# Entry
Amino acid sequence: MIKLETIVTDVLSAVGLAIIILSPLIFSSIQRKILNQRLHTRVDGEKLFEKLKYDLKLSKLTGVDKRRLYMDVDYAKTIFRGAMEYNSREVVWYFNELFAKRHIHSTIRKKAWLHTWVWIITLLVIVGGSYGDIAYWLFDMQSMKPDSGIASIWVLFFCAAGISVLTKYLEFTKVKTVINDEVRQINLTKKEKVWKDYKLIYWISCGAPIVGFMLILLNIFFV
# Structure
């Protein structure tokens, strides 16, 4: 299995497998952070509520639950009832961004967890059927005999990879539908930026498992 003379490539191989399994969750977190910077931001909320406060000729707000103010549209409408006549669209758009942010990230997160669980279950099946063969396959494949579980491991590996590719494609189509059709009444410029940001991170995330697979191949075939 792990040998001192191949310790570097063995570590890279283990890192490669970790990248394949965990990269969707990492990129899901990155997508969430970017969404938080684009939609329903604290800065936009402060500007909106300052405008509403000015319309009501209030110097400051007292007895207001600030956290609820930024999260509950009905509460905000109650607080600024007298300023809603000319600003209702801005208020609706701001809180629609909260729905959009949560809906988009929920879609991405669900697909990321599906990918991760597919690989976890695949590894559990391999370990359950061939015990320590997965370690030999990952770190010392050259020593494996034809009657070992090598063929089964490769079959399960490529089945999991195929499901992962399908999951990634379904994520893209679903998020596209969510952004373009299901998310309504928000600033169009923001919507376009969210879609561009998503596509950029999406294509980078597609390359991560490929890098992980290349690290595994490096140890299997070139050492």
